[in-house]
Amino acid sequence: MTHRIVIVGGGAGGLELATRLGRTLGKRGKARITLIDANLTHIWKPLLHEVAAGSLNSSADELNYVAQAKWNHFEFQMGRMSGLERERKCVHLAASFDEHGVELVPARTLNYDTLVIAVGSTTNDFGTKGAAEHCIFLDTREQAERFHRRLLSHYMRAHATEGHHSTIEMAIVGAGATGVELAAELHHAARELAAYGLDGIKPENVRITLIEAGPRVLPALPERIGQPVHQTLRDLGVTVLTDAAVSEVTEEGLHTKSGDFVPATLKVWAAGIRAPSFLHELDELETNRINQLQVLPTLQTTRDENIFAFGDCAACPQADSDRNVPPRAQAAHQQASLLAKSLARRLEGQSLPSYRYRDYGSLISLSSFSAVGNLMGNLTGNVMLEGWLARMFYVSLYRMHQIALYGIARTALMMIGDKISTSTVPRLKLH
Predict the structure, then answer these.
(1) What's the CA gap between 335 and 296, in Å, rounded?
(2) CA-based nearest residue to 69, from 38, 33, 44
(3) How far apart are CA 429 and CA 395, in angstroms?
(4) Is residue 126 in some structural domain?
(5) Same domain, 23 and 64
(6) How many domains would you assign to the chain?
(7) Where residue 379 falls among pLDDT bands split at 50, 70, 90?
(8) Containing domain of residue 216, as a range?
(9) Which range among 76-85, 167-176, 411-420 shows the weakest confidence by mean pLDDT?
(10) Is pLDDT above 70 for 376?
């Protein structure tokens, strides 16, 4: 009987793994590959801040799972994982409903021989009072689009009030990569909206505050990257508050533990991550305090060799370190590449290689204004990049993701199409 590999989660890592396995094991009939996701389309999560600001039209850049499955010899099942029975080797999927409560897909059970869990992470508000009620998170395309609609509604109301100039106050909690890049994109959006005639809110009346509980922006990256980023944000007019932990969020704004108050109409929480809570209840699989599944260096879960986990939802130990692999896109990409080889070896009864994290550096985009980062490798050493060159390397990260999914030829055609469309579509999504 054909070996069945079930992958839960169609994020960057899960989708890339399904595509790789489909092109190899699936195409040759050596395994039946099934990808499960709650949505019908995929968009690269690191781009969600651009969707929120309107710099990226998510409809133009989305990938359809059904089409991708057909092109790459795997199957797609729409659903959300709700349970696991390890002894029976099956996963339970909850029913899916549309916005009117009508059932689209019924609850069902899928059997597996090998299960791979790649459900990513969600924002961690650390139980902060009012955060869930008054802040928008940027975990999904729907959340990013909801923020964009709210932003546009403020501009449309101001535009309809002739002769009156309004002010809009926005606050972003968390000065990691998402928070920093969103702040720059929102400043860029303010300029573009005014250029299109929506000048009821002038760029100088867009007040953006970036709030970080730690001592500096980009706390997970080297300080030599954080310093120029902080200065660029200041030059753009973004107010940056460090050592400012948020204690409560209200409709009017945010309160910090030091007693300060930051007024804000639009609020985004971009601080901290945790894995989805349902992982903590998966048939006694071992998890940590933020719900990540504990895995061995082979990416197998500690209590079941037939279940693998990778990406943000997995706590994978780093070799020669007491820390886990950081939740970064490059880690998920590396792990997907390793698992594509590991699962093929597993079918042949061979031993599995261990994963070793390789840090190739970090790149931060500040919209059209600048980019900063460093590249690390055996040939380059540790090279600091700024400006246009850093921006080109940043864009290449997304193109590498597209190449993994579409191949070189189709990605090249998409790049040409993107270049042509810049003269026929608005520079900012206006709806």
Answers:
(1) 12
(2) 33
(3) 19
(4) no
(5) yes
(6) 3
(7) very low
(8) 131-269
(9) 411-420
(10) no
* Domain CATH code at residue 173: 3.50.50.60
- Residues 83, 104: one domain? yes
Per-residue pLDDT band for 377 (boundaries 50, 70, 90) equals low
Residue 142: pLDDT over 50: yes
Name which of 85-89, 95-99, 183-187, 323-327 the model is least confident about. 95-99
Check: pTM over 0.85? Answer yes or no.
Answer: yes
Q: Are 170 and 206 in contact (CB under 8 A)?
A: yes
pLDDT tens digits, residue range 330-360?
999 999 999 999 999 999 999 999 999 998 8
Domain termination site, one of 347, 371, 391: 347
> Cα–Cα distance between 414 and 247 in angstroms, integer?
45
Assess whether pLDDT exceeds 60 at residue 21.
Answer: yes
